[in-house]
Amino acid sequence: MNTNVKPLALITGVGPGTGSSIARRFAAAGYRTALIARDVARLNALAAELPDSLALPCDVTDPEALAVAVARAGTAEVVVHNAVGGAWGTFREIDPEVLERNFQINVMALLHLARLTTPAMVAAGRGALIVTGNTSALRGRPKFAGFAPTKAAQRILAESMARDLGPQGVHVAYLVIDAVIDVPWARELHSDKPDDFFIQPDAIADEVMHLVQQHRSAWSFNVEVRPFREVW
User: Fold this and answer.
1) pLDDT, tens digit, for every residue of 186-205?
2) For residue 67, what are the domain limits?
């Protein structure tokens, strides 16, 4: 396939789990991929693995750096905001600055990313912006005080975008991942759990692709995925 006609998927939060799986899934589907994260070595290694990919080391909380990265990537047909800031602790235990930092990653970076990328989608009359979230976007538990407020705000921001951009031909969807993602640190933390306790990053990537490929007569916004054993 001629690389000049390949669509571009821009992905933030390209870590060793979900982000890398999403990048691989889009590359396998014939997309060029623009990879955004802070870990330069990881990005370069993944970019070397994937055809027609571009590593764009960037802290998404820096609006100017994000704008430079998006400009280098070019016009994206698909944008996936997978970058995430998290914290563990009650409202008494957390450092307030952690909550503010997570808001910058989860909410403000989404705002800037959408403002940078969706005008071209509107002009083309097509495109998709997919945001990966989790159960914290739907409820606040005691130990998630430094995290859940920002994910809830992220989901509402994405809904506002969906209601605005949908009639203009751009699909915005919010994917709630109600599970523990199967990555090494999570395996270590939950070493007593069976394999089917975890959600697989490749399966999440498949659902992201499904959202992108939905017919516009049946677009989803709120989508939830969880392992079959998950209690909910």
Assistant:
1) 888 888 888 888 999 999 99
2) 8-225
